[in-house]
Amino acid sequence: MPFRKEPPHTHGTIAKSAVVLVNLGTPDAPTRKAVRRYLKEFLSDPRVVEIPRAIWNLILKLVILPFRSGKSAQKYAMIWTREGSPLKVYTARQANRLQALLAERGHEDVEVAMAMRYGSPPLPQVLDELKAKGVDRIVVLPAYPQYSGTTTASIWDAVYAHYAQVRNIPELRLVKHYHDHEGYIEALADSVLDYWETHGRGEKLVMSFHGVPKRTLMLGDPYFCECQRTGRLLAARLRLSPEQYLVTFQSRFGRAEWLQPYTAPTVQQLAREGVKRIDVMCPGFTSDCLETLEEINMEVRRDFEMNGGQEYHYIPCLNDNPVWITGLAEIAEQHLIGWPTMMSPSQREARRQDADAAREHAARLGA
């Protein structure tokens, strides 16, 4: 297999560092056509659906795409904003504010880029653009705090597949997870406490994480355990007793057993048991999206109210919360250690002189 053409390179060019913030993805528009295109890419990934390809491809082509695309498009239309998809809008804001904060903290030479695993901007395209800018050191930072083979590992697949076609591969650091990182937990706690200060506090705090099939846990995926640890750490930070919070799992799909307890039935049961107010948050999503704004804030809200619940409060995701941007910066800095991203004026001048000398030497050799 021939390697892809390398961008023009000048000897003595100073190598740059970058952080790529990667989220799952979103359709380009809340239309049937755009949603179908997005779902086809997403659901064709064997990391996402572990069913024999021949069988799944038939189901996807004949059942899922024809019938689910239109319904999903209607749901996306309910949460779409003037700026576009909430997930894409908030991920872009996170990337922009992370770049600004890193610069304030002395990392002026670090570029921060946003990419999507599915949809746009596609991760391979972003990696190519960084290479063209002279970036030769990259931290890949998933927007998923908890590791799962269905999400984080899929990003690694895309990174490896891309660089399998590249001759000059940059130095890579892949952030596996930060489910128990102090900056992440602190940002979650800050968002809850800030909400409670304005809206009061419910009888129960429900922490709803995205679900995955139970068999993934049995096969060694650490996702369930990492969600539980996030829940325990957040509860401890909020000083909640075990009776005051619940960890649940949403977005079940198909007939197979998924991680339990399921969010919707749990919320319904709480209402039937006489719980009048609950607060619901989605710690596993760092940006609000279809699964939080439509499924949790609309569908599950109806489930609670239809079963006798009186007050349902949804606590938004971290989004561009300044405390979360600080947490992101701390996570990024831990993985940038050892790379020359923070320099004094004298170090910057020495680096410039070294680059000039290298270019002069290359010119004498006719390179």
TrEMBL record:
CDD domains per record: Ferrochelatase_C, Ferrochelatase_N
Principal EC category: lyase
Homology family: Belongs to the ferrochelatase family.
Magnesium in keyword set: no
Comp. bias (Basic and acidic residues): 348-367
SUPFAM superfamilies in the cross-refs: Chelatase (SSF53800)
EC number: 4.98.1.1
Keyword Cell inner membrane: no
Lineage of source species: Bacteria, Pseudomonadati, Pseudomonadota, Betaproteobacteria, Burkholderiales
Function description: Catalyzes the ferrous insertion into protoporphyrin IX.
Domain of life: Bacteria
Record keywords, A-Z: Cytoplasm, Heme biosynthesis, Iron, Lyase, Metal-binding, Porphyrin biosynthesis
Region (Disordered): 344-367
Pfam entry (one): Ferrochelatase
Reactions performed catalytically: Fe-coproporphyrin III + 2 H(+) = coproporphyrin III + Fe(2+); heme b + 2 H(+) = protoporphyrin IX + Fe(2+)
Pathway connected to this protein: Porphyrin-containing compound metabolism; protoheme biosynthesis; protoheme from protoporphyrin-IX: step 1/1
Compartments reported by the entry: Cytoplasm
Residues that bind Fe(2+): H210, E291
InterPro entries (UniProt xref): Ferrochelatase, Ferrochelatase_C, Ferrochelatase_N
Name of the molecule in the record: Ferrochelatase
Signal sequence range: none
